[in-house]
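Its record is quoted verbatim for completeness.
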Amino acid sequence: MQPNPAITLEKRFCAHNYSPLEVVIVQGEGVWAIGDDGRRYLDMMSAYSAVSHGHAHPRIRAAAMAQIDKVSVVSRAFYSEPLGNFLQTLCRISGFDSALPMNSGAEAVETAIKAARRWGYRVKGIAANQAKIVVADNNFHGRTSTIVGFSSEPAYKADFGPFCNGFSEARFGDIESFRAAITADTCAVLIEPIQGEAGIRLPPAGFLRELRQLCDETNTLLILDEIQSGLGRTGKWFAFEHEGIRPDALILGKALGGGIMPVSAFVADHPIMDLFDAGSHGSTFGGNPLAAAIGLEALKVLEDEGLIDNSAQLGRYLVERLTALGSPAIREIRGRGLWVGVELDRDARPICEALLAEGVLTKETHENVLRIAPPLSISREELDWGLERIERVFKQLV
């Protein structure tokens, strides 16, 4: 077999900081990705939830093209027409007063860190340069040098130090560990309500309610990173809604870009957001007209097309079907909505490769967890198509 020229060129000229499966995707249509050989693959990964609406959603694509025909980038040195409409809709849906638009999820996390520290100094009264943020073990919030500095994953940190101070770690899901970690100098707790890269790990029921109460008692901000879990992925707009709480601030991204471009946001009420003044933070591309037009339509599609209810209903069905496999290779199935991790007793990479051969795109996380996260637009028939092939692969393991 002749080597694939696209793969050859990428391996030659691109940094080897990923380990992709051996397939070249040239087109996407809804829940389907098309390879360079014309084969159709069911996308059950959704680019880590960035393609929640499906590939090339016609409404989002039309909104993008219409804005491109007007103006794409002006920077926030000037006002632009789409941005206010986008952020008004985002604030209405999230229930917060204000939003600061960025591009990548990591940028929005860095924005949250700045906001938390400034709040700590100017509102809580923490001494200069002493503010601390408590994070969870096995967290994943991005890959900037600040963020990997408080990761507990050695592979993310090796030979990238020295790292930024000001972070302490508590055990995910253990309220007493967080209680012990919070001090008078703690300005915020930053946590994922469901840990994605750690293997779709859910905390015990009631943990987020206890954490909300603890933050209230200690005058500490509760900031939730819902870059992956937010915008319908778990069967509700936001994962925190499953516990009936409200954080002090929210970090969003991935699906906010409608599967077209990176769009993220830090969302909070005025007492936090108004601590940013002119020149204190910014991004050349953050909140550009094209991103705003895409983000607005991405939110409208989630509202109009019932994708969040679809995630809730088909998510339950997905777990039922996976549980019914009864495979001895499966240790645990966990998740919410159309976001499921299948923990295995072995390396998940060969299973991803076997599924690729069957026409299903998935990817492993933490070596032994199979991640299943199709677009929220998937139909039951399409999901059944994928599940039949997953069942076939697991039967071959016996």
About this structure: The chain has two domains: 5-56+306-397, 70-304. The chain has a mean pLDDT of 97. DSSP finds 14 helices and 15 strands in the chain. The domain at 70-304 is CATH 3.40.640.10 (Aspartate Aminotransferase; domain 2).
